[in-house]
């Protein structure tokens, strides 16, 4: 491993992690993908990685953790999270890394950074500022698709979601739409930003509700009557 | 608190202290707006040697200047990425379309498989219908045949002497047959 004075430990399984690793690789930085678990503690990394970190730290390298939590005993580590509040305002992990490496973010990374900081609004606002407001939704959709793919959601699951949405049925006098998924990847529904109040039924009796809170009590009452094992989760 | 014309004047004083490069990055229409709407007030002064935080700068002036900074940053951003924007949007649209096509493809394939399964049942259904039609068409022939047989039997029975016929009529089946033909 070439000594650049920095070692980056990356954890996570989303678009942010992928783009971070890409950026670091492009700059020939020492980067280790340590775990798919977002927010993992330094202490829970594999012993071999912990030993490597300690050794590099003793050699004088700065240790940065992306998607990490806590500290590692005896090592000065710098945790970079998805969003950080600084005196210069909110910064995403991509912003911080680009400043540390003194590299300019690409246009795509700029939009991903906005998404990390402010979600859908961040992307659309940036598109407006760049005078491409008409393309805001398309860019947002693209980022969300890639994020879901990075999280391991397959194209088959995406297709099943589309089919399930087409076959949705109504309850509570048409005020709530019921969607039955054959998987539990609720992000495939959330990202589609449907207007309805949605009751999403997943395998293993996992249930989600998206929409106006006033329908939750009515639904919970209905579930209580049907099965005690069914639990309603509001997103 | 300063009035609008006053804080615009104060902003103008601050802007005039900027280095040439920074001054030139301010949109011309913003400068024109300030010129047209400000009011010179000799009581308002800005010392270019001192930091703004050490001077009496109105909060509205600061807000106005902040907006200018945001505009300048956005203009710089737009210029920085001007060349990349068109290609980026094109790539995004293309990838989104590709994704939708893949999803549609999977669902279409599923529909085709379902149709194929249903189509395989059609020959069997046809066969059953044909058999049924055969039986239905033969039904009429069978009925005529049975009627003829029945009439033959009735005429044969009528030829039998009455007292012997009465013995046979004790059998219900023969009795019914006789009633129907009557």
Task: Give a written overview of the molecule.
The complex is a heterodimer of chains A (235) and B (182). Chain A is of the alpha/beta class. Among the domains of chain A are: 6-96, Rossmann fold (3-Layer(aba) Sandwich); 163-234, no CATH class. Chain A contains eight helices and 13 strands. Chain A has helices at 15-26, 47-58, 93-101, 107-129, 136-150, 155-166, 187-190, 214-226, and strands spanning 6-11, 30-35, 40-41, 62-66, 68-69, 77-80, 83-86, 89-92, 169-171, 176-180, 197-201, 206-210, 231-234. A five-stranded mixed beta sheet of chain A has the order 9-10-11-12-13, with helices on one face. In chain A, β9 and β10 form a beta hairpin. The longest helix of chain A is centred in the middle third of the chain and has 23 residues, at 107-129. Chain A is globular and about 70 Å long. The mean pLDDT of chain B is 85. With 182 residues, chain B is mainly α. In chain B, α1 (4-15) crosses α3 and α1 crosses α4. Chain B has two domains: 4-91, no CATH class; 139-182. The A-B interface holds A 104, 106-108, 110, 129-132, 135, 138-139, 141-142, 145, 155-156, 158-159, 162-163 and B 74, 77-78, 80-81, 84-85, 88-89, 92-93, 95-96, 99, 102-103, 106-107, 110.
């Amino acid at each position: 491993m070439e000594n650049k004075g920095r070692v980056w430990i990356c954890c996570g399984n989303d678009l942010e992690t992928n783009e971070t690793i890409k950026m670091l690789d492009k700059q020939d930085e020492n980067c280790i993908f340590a775990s798919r678990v977002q927010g993992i503690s330094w202490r829970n990394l594999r012993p071999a990685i912990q030993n490597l970190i300690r050794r590099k730290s003793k050699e004088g390298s700065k240790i940065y953790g992306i998607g990490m939590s806590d500290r590692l005993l005896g090592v000065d580590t710098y945790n970079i999270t998805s969003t950080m509040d600084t005196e210069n305002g909110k910064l995403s992990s991509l912003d911080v890394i680009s400043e540390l490496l003194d590299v300019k973010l690409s246009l795509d990374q700029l939009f991903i950074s906005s998404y990390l900081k402010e979600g859908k609004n961040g992307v659309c606002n940036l598109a407006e500022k760049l005078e491409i407001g008409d393309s805001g939704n398309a860019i947002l959709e693209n980022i969300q698709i890639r994020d879901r793919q990075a999280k391991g959601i397959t194209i088959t699951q995406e297709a099943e979601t589309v089919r399930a949405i087409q076959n949705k049925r109504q309850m509570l006098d048409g005020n709530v739409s019921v969607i039955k998924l054959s998987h539990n990847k609720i992000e495939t529904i959330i990202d589609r930003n449907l207007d309805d109040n949605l009751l999403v039924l997943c395998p293993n009796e996992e249930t989600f509700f998206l929409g106006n809170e006033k329908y939750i009590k009515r639904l919970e009452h209905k579930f209580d009557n049907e099965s005690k094992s069914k639990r309603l989760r509001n997103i | 608190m300063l009035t609008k014309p006053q804080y615009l004047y104060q902003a103008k004083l601050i802007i005039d202290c900027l280095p040439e490069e920074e001054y030139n990055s301010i949109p011309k229409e913003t400068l024109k707006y300030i010129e047209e709407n400000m009011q010179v007030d000799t009581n308002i002064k800005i010392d270019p040697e001192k930091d703004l935080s050490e001077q009496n700068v109105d909060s509205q002036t600061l807000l106005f200047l902040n907006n200018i900074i945001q505009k300048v940053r956005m203009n710089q951003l737009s210029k920085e990425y001007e060349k990349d924007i068109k290609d980026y949007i094109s790539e995004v649209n293309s990838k989104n379309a590709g994704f939708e096509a893949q999803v549609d493809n999977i669902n279409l394939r599923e529909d085709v498989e379902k149709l194929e399964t249903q189509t395989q049942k059609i020959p069997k259904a046809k066969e059953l219908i044909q058999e049924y039609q055969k039986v239905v068409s033969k039904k009429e022939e069978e009925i005529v045949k049975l009627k003829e047989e029945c009439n033959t039997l009735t005429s044969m029975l009528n030829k039998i002497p009455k007292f012997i016929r009465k013995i046979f009529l004790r059998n219900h089946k023969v009795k019914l047959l006789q009633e129907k033909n009557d």
